[in-house]
Input
Amino acid sequence: MSTADLGMCEMPQIPGVPDPRAATLAGLRALADAGWLRQLDWALAQFMARLDPDAAPELLVAAALLAQFEGRGHSCLPVNLLCARPLALPGWPPAAQEALDALLRGLSTDPTQWMQALRASHCVQDAARAPQQGAQPDGGTPLVLAGPPEAPLLYLRRYWHFEQAVAQQLRARAAEPIAVDTALARHWLDRLFDPAPTGTCDWQKLACAIALRSRLAIVTGGPGTGKTYTAARLLAALLAVDSTPERLRVALAAPTGKAAARLRQSLETALAGLQARVGDTLDLAGFATRIGPARTLHALLGARPGTRRLRHHAAAPLDVDVLIVDEASMVHLEMMASLLAALPAHARLVLLGDKDQLASVEAGAVLGDLCQGAEQGHYGAGTVRYAQAAAGVDIPLALRALAVPVPVPLLAANTVMLRESHRFSGPIGALALAVHAGDGARAAALLRHDASGALHSLEGVDPQAAVTLALAEGPAPSYRDYLLRLGRQPAADDAPGHAAWTASVLAAFERFRLLCAVREGPWGAEGMARAIERAAREARLLGGTGQWYAGRPVLVTRNDAEAGVFNGDVGLALPAAGGAGLRVFFADGPSLRSVSVARLAHVETAFAMTVHKAQGSEFEHTALVLPPHAGALLSRELVYTGITRARQVFTLVAPRAGLLAQAVQLRTQRASGLQDLLRREAG
Output
């Protein structure tokens, strides 16, 4: 949300506002001036006061905290939360909590009175009483009151609209299964998968069977559980059972360019490996060529620079029969709404992702909401029979829906959780499992007593320890590997040698990454990046001066379709072939692409990056830096995501012992109404 979303440029003080509204506005202003609320949060409260001169103080407080919640990734504000005393907001220091409690002292703790105050304002639409009012995201009242009566939710209109649109689209996609020739499906799935051990459930095979009959399939699982392995077999099965396979149109996408490139490369390799299984019946190599490159979601939808407008939408849908989206945990609410709107009604959507990773930076935790109950299964009798007929898979009794009517997730029959990791079975996998289970003591013990060389812990250290680690010599990869290669540049007229050198420098850089929980401060990504850059210069590993220099790693922070770069892309500034100045080179699967440094205005130095920015990537060695104080940012999901970026070596860097155990106790819970919208009574 921005001031543009509020339809204003600035919010002047309102003259003549009667008490107690003036006191409420003054209290909110004080919280903003102290930095505990954003100026944008305070501005929304002022905006409500301007629109409704009779607005109750409760509305002004609710508006400011709603904006604060949206800024922290929530899609709404639970009204009942406003009645708690003290009103504990995650990440707020004690002084901020005391100031907020003082502001709320004269306000009710009765949810009914808060609801009355909100409903009394013409700035608030009660969705239960006027569900069709303001159907567009930018029309009608600024705020919407929705949710079940016992747990009402307050929304900014845009996010209420997005949530409703996502739920409506998903309900429609889940409503009617696609007719499947189960004998034909069984034939091909048996060819594509090895027989499972007796008494076990082949979750990957089940996921393919579910996706064959669904216009929506959700495949969730941790690292190494085979999500892209499953997707490759699904593509082969879809090609095999389609009546006109030569016309099957498939698109691949992911939230970031790095994740998209990894998806394409993984699927291409997996499809090539399947050719021997299918013989001459299916031309999987030709099929892979027809699919083409994977794209970012912004590129797929045709994002227009500097606007929210997209080339593809409900009136101009995508030309696709199957869309596979990887790293779906990173897809925020607005993007999911746009994606579903642009997808033809007949098309299959397959979402791949880890529900336990960090949610998107922007509002919403869509994959987590969609995967509610995934661990329990809740598979109905029809799904159980279909799985046996189409895949020969017996779904365990413990994961079948009860015979009596109980509330179950609407998307249970469309969701499969992959439960066995085929790659993360070593020390890193054990550490990730301990963190996922919230067992901080076990996680700390694994880090301190690992003898394999895969896990390392630097606790009770200062930020310089992370800088030293990033440039260290030793068996574990560091940035030193790529920095040393910088000095081995071939002759200017050696074009093939330059291409090989560029690829080797990029590959060496991608072996290690320093990840931070926060952006700012000496323990944050920005401070760490500056410190590593300075240390590399002092060690004569880097040369050049100024903003641009050979070897500068950069992270793209804004989409630029014309330049062909997107938010989250990571590249290296290197000399162009023939000595034609610096260009930023990006790995695009097995190939390289480059952009002139003059065209890249929105980048930052990427010797360190936040865990959020690293989603969709993996590195041989990942170091996770925890700050001494990060409040709600330091969560189980953040630590889990950081650990699972490491393929071979993981190092924890923390200023004090016990910080890891403390972090894994805090779970990220984002307020949302999507789960409730996707719940139904099962018979």
